[in-house]
Amino acid sequence: MLDFHISQPATDTHSDIYDVIIIGSGPAGMTAAIYTGRSLLKTLILEKIGSGGQAALTELIENYPGFPHGINGYELSQRMEEHAKNFGTSFEYADVQKVYQDTDGIFHVATESREFLSKTVIVATGASPKKLGIPGEDKFIGRGISFCATCDASFYKGKVVAVIGGGDSAVEEGMYLTKFATKVYLIHRRDQLRATKIVQQRAFQTPGMEFIWNTIVEEVRGNNTLEALKLKNVRTGETSWLEVNGMFLYIGLSPNTSFLEGVTRDEQGYILTDEMMRTNIPGLFAAGDCRKTPLRQVVTAASDGAIAAYAVEKYLEER
Question: pTM for this one?
Fold first, then answer.
């Protein structure tokens, strides 16, 4: 039982109680819904914004099995949502603010407007992009600073942009931006990329991309919109200004788990689970990017969702 809050037993009728509520509709959440739906479990997905999570913002997903030429992330997300709905999953768009149990072990999932009741919960809330935490950053988010090239690239036709980061997301989105911007600077704090080798090879051959190594951004400036970045070379300490019209951040993720209490997490906030996606709270499971895992990809999130759904079914059978 969640140790932070115990309420009285639920007074709602049995028909109002779901077998499982899935918080989040990214690949993990929707895969879980497909599996629980096929098992004839009464399933509800609660989603804050829209289906797909970070995957829906990706221009091209090349490493999801079955799509040898890749697939647009939004299209894949829409297919997953349709698949889940075909097996009877209900969807509600709401921001979950708290999860707690009553003395009967029923979970109360509280949103800004109402509570939903369920025998089990799968947390599949994913993770959100990190910010740099530098002067001027908050002022220019949405006015030159973005976290999604697929969403905002068209605003930078014929302009100059910078991409911050060195992983797959940074490099792939940087290449995508070259379709619109006249120049794309990729700024990385190290002297080599972390992206997979095949992605690196393509990037180095992409016209319009220029790499700035061993460098961090210390400050951003502009009037109504972003105009310049203050750069610092981490090896020499030398600083300089780079004129750009936009900056895209791909420097890592923070798990969307702050609404949870009583659930064991690591120092970064990622939920700790066992191999069956079980948390320290019986009946509460976690799947996808919000949990501690060595790899955060669409395929691993989908795998987590399938395992969590299987674990939910076994938990309900035992009860």
Answer: 0.82
Under 8 Å CB-to-CB from 142, ≥6 apart: which residues? none
Q: Which of 3, 12, 95, 151 is catalytic?
A: 151
CB 174 within 8 A of CB 203: yes
Which homologous superfamily does the CATH classification assign to the domain defined by 131-249? FAD/NAD(P)-binding domain (3.50.50.60)
Based on the residue annotation, tell me whether 290 is a catalytic residue of this protein. no
**What are the backbone dihedrals phi and psi of residue 180, each rounded to the nearest 5 degrees, phi first?**
-120, -50
Task: Look up the CATH superfamily of 6-128+253-318.
Answer: FAD/NAD(P)-binding domain (3.50.50.60)
Q: One digit per residue, pLDDT tens: the chain, 319 residues?
A: 444 454 555 544 445 899 999 999 999 999 999 999 999 999 999 998 888 888 888 888 889 999 999 999 999 999 999 999 999 999 999 999 999 999 999 999 999 999 999 999 999 999 999 999 999 999 999 899 999 898 899 999 999 999 999 999 999 999 999 999 999 999 999 999 999 999 999 999 999 999 999 999 999 999 999 999 999 999 999 999 999 999 999 999 999 999 999 999 999 999 999 999 999 999 999 999 999 999 989 999 999 999 999 999 999 999 8
Is-same-fold flag (6-128+253-318; 131-249)?
yes
| DSSP character string of 71-111 | B-HHHHHHHHHHHHHHTT-EEEE--EEEEEEETTS-EEEEE
Q: Which is the catalytic residue, given 152, 168, 289, 304? A: 152
Active site residue 168: no
